[in-house]
Write a structure and sequence with these properties.
Strand order of the largest sheet: 6-7-8-3-9-10
CATH architecture of the largest domain: 3-Layer(aba) Sandwich
Structural class: alpha/beta
Helix content: 25-40%
Mean pLDDT: 92
Distance between the termini: 42 Å
CATH topology of the largest domain: Rossmann fold
CATH class of the largest domain: Alpha Beta
Radius of gyration: 18 Å
């Protein structure tokens, strides 16, 4: 079920430079600083999990990286290029709460494919099968369960053949079975060549998924490194407290 169908973009461009470089990235809104002078380089592949307490800046950073919010200062470079509409079209973002069209399950995928100038029933059905929703293709999307809606939202994002997929706490408030299914879909997307940036407050989930971890606190980058090293030996007191379940302020 979770062998992701190879997309045309993946077949055409097997070696893409998706390296992300942040230099002095900051965001202030109405005098309040939300992101503080972040300098960071991320490798061009894998699953990066963004972690930190509520209010750490994880979701805002994701929106900055996707070009939805302009930074107050600093630079965001993807493969050496500043953010542009062309780059944004090579990315996709799935929110914590699925935003679905008032159409059938299949119609949501058809819309995403048409936005890329394609009408490809085989590709649509392969994606729905991949996320376990082919049997529900004709159902109204908004009548699906919460977990099914999120799986459809991810399938619709994958229909655009993104080189980078942003996931903002996609399994929050879902039942354990749905969480496991979505995690397998995310791993399959990574294995098929899609770069994943995944916001999660769940340390156990991050242990299961992450290739590397970006840990934020109060809008600042505190740690970044391989997941195994981060969970075994976090270098900062705030990360150690967070992983121990202590309240971090």
């Amino acid at each position: 079920m979770f062998d992701a169908p190879a997309s045309p973009a993946q077949r055409a461009a097997p070696e893409r430079d998706l390296r992300l470089e942040l230099s002095g990235l900051s965001l202030a809104i109405d005098g309040q600083v939300w992101i503080r002078d972040i300098n960071l380089t991320l490798a061009p592949s894998g699953i990066t999990v963004l972690m930190g307490a509520n209010g750490a800046g994880k979701s805002l950073l994701l929106r900055l990286l996707h070009g939805l919010v302009p930074p107050s200062a600093g630079a965001i470079l993807w493969g050496g290029e500043p953010m542009s509409e062309r780059l944004r079209r090579r990315q996709a973002l799935v929110f914590q709460k699925p935003v679905l069209l008032r159409r059938s399950v299949a119609g949501n995928i058809d819309f995403a494919l048409a936005a890329r100038g394609r009408r490809d029933r085989a590709r649509r059905d392969a994606l729905l099968s991949h996320v376990g929703l082919l049997a529900h293709a004709g159902r109204p999307a908004r009548l699906l369960s919460g977990g099914e809606q999120q799986r459809l939202a991810i399938a619709r994002a994958l229909a655009t053949d993104p080189e980078v997929l942003f996931l903002d706490e996609p399994t929050a408030s879902l039942d354990p079975a749905s969480v496991l299914v979505i995690q397998e879909i995310v791993r399959a997307a990574r294995d098929a060549g899609t770069r994943i940036l995944f916001v999660s407050h769940d340390a156990a989930q991050a242990r299961r998924l992450a290739d590397d971890v970006v840990f934020l606190h109060d809008g600042a980058l505190v740690e970044h490194g391989p997941a195994e090293a981060f969970f075994a030996r976090p270098s900062s007191a705030v990360a150690r407290d967070y992983l121990a379940g202590r309240i971090v302020v």
